[in-house]
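Supplementary Note 2. Why include the ligand at all?

Several targets in our set were suspected to adopt different conformations when bound, so apo predictions alone were not considered sufficient. For every target with a known small-molecule partner we therefore ran a joint prediction. The input for iron/sulfur cluster is given below.
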Amino acid sequence: MATTERGIPEGATCIGPDQGPGYGSLDVFPPAEPIRAEWVGRRRNDPVRTQMHYARRGDVTEEMWVAARREGLEPTFVRDEVARGRMIIPANVAHRNLVPLAIGIHARCKINANIGNSAVTSDVEGELEKLRRCIKYKADTVMDLSTGGGIDEIRAAIVERSPVPIGTVPIYQAIQEVPRLEDLTADLLLSNIRRQAEQGVDYMTVHCGVRREHLPLVESRITGIVSRGGSLMAQWMLTHGRENPLYESYDEILEICREYDVSLSLGDGLRPGCLHDASDEAQFAELEVLGELTRRAWERDVQVMVEGPGHVPLDQIPMNVRRQIEVCDEAPFYVLGPIVTDVAPGYDHITSAIGASVAAQHGAAMLCYVTPKEHLGLPNADDVHQGIIAYRIAAHAADVARGRPGAREWDDAISRARYAFDWNEQFALSMDPDTARAMHDEELPHEAFKTAEFCSMCGPKFCSMRISQAVDDYNAARKAGGIGGTGPTTREE
Ligand code: SF4
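The joint prediction is reproduced in token form.
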């Protein structure tokens, strides 16, 4: 395969600013040429076109190749992980502008940001602006959770322009199409899933795991069923006295996913909504079903990841991750938070980023962001910004702890720039360069201060990093044999 100097297949020209040394992010907006159309076009006569199918056949697809290069992994390793089900590459065959990426325990921890309109705010341009911000702040995937009007038009525009995988929760749109929840049918759900698959959605959350027999298990909870999809399915089952239609239609859902290579994100409809409800019987009963559904998806070569809680005390997070990995045979774990204390509304990007980092350290593959508005209202652009950065910090901290290729190098590079008082380099290497620069310049805006050996925190006289350089001079001289054992001298002020 012909490659560019960055090791990307010829034609895959989506090169943007790196996330840090060693990462080689390919995210761009607007997207480059739709090179995937050519890749997928070559496979048009294949009876099955999922990445899992090709991986099990022994093929390394272009998608695997690009995803591997973005991770610093061998393409054959990515292929083997996809074949095993331990890694997914969400890549709908109809998503032409996608720059493929891998989600799994052996890949860099990913983060998802949510966008989408509501019944009161709705337009294509507004949603594209949110997508633009998600790309700018480097969310790895974006979920369109639109529940208002014009959903098809908005989603088509998002998929067409997005270089990152797009996820949805199809039941939200299905609910919009019926006057009352009880009018919802399996056929309507399936037609929504198919329509979204045709549009190019890369992964879909389906709440197939909530079953009728689980409903009595939430009796002793404080906050009941907090997942929107889970609560809707529960109400439907109660109204009709029947089993969850998404569970009963699972084989048909798999056929659609197999046709378009839609990855399934098995929703945790019974996730706990507060610390009191964490790790209870209802949560784990659903998890067992998710394990069964994972294996059924793999039988059809459908890629799958499994969603997880929610609100969990810090000490229970490692057990929760281990249990999911065990029950779901190591399918990638996609966690929402988890929030580790319920008492800080307005700051749940922080309460959840703490839990997310611990979950990622113990094996979660992707983190769904939480914004400061969680539990309080619809996030605005600033909330989205705060949520994404909080989650990139959580994911990166876990990547460092797990020794991911390139992760620690980023920290070391910014530390060297900091110690060298190379302020511009420090800003450039920051996770959020604009904010870092703005904070520095608040007190010392003049360009001359971009090489100053201090900042406004300690001032020139007490800047410990400047003072510490006298120790460096001493050690350098000692190493060169110029100094005996008299200890360091202080630099001239
Ligand atoms: S003045 Fe203080 S905070 Fe600023 S660079 Fe020096 S040691 Fe760091």
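Confidence is low (pLDDT under 50) at residues 3-31. The CA atoms of residues 112 and 368 lie 5 Å apart. Comparable summaries for the other entries are listed in the accompanying table.
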